[in-house]
Predict the 3D structure of the following.
Amino acid sequence: MRDALVAAGYRVIAADLPGSGRSEPQPRTYTATFYEDDARSFAALLQQLATGPAHLMGFSDGGEISLLMAALTPGVARSVVTWGAADNCGRRCTTSLTIPSRPFSSSGTTS
């Protein structure tokens, strides 16, 4: 998917969650707030990189974190695509997530 997005002209930033892939610390200690902590860390990364509102994508825990990023950090998300997310963010996401829907055209641009 990354190659297709790059070929379509998107800048792709792919980062491992703390304790996953090549990130540290290994093994990770999971606290009660790890989803929120990760969401804030990734939002800070996007803000440091000055990306502006980004299209967020995530699978499983990455989906949870994408939803929380959008809910907890206004202005960080242009859109959110998740799959395999288990709704661990619950009410925090459903009550505060107000991202306008923008359908995509086949060329990958918003309409």
Notes: Confidence is low (pLDDT under 50) at residues 103-108.
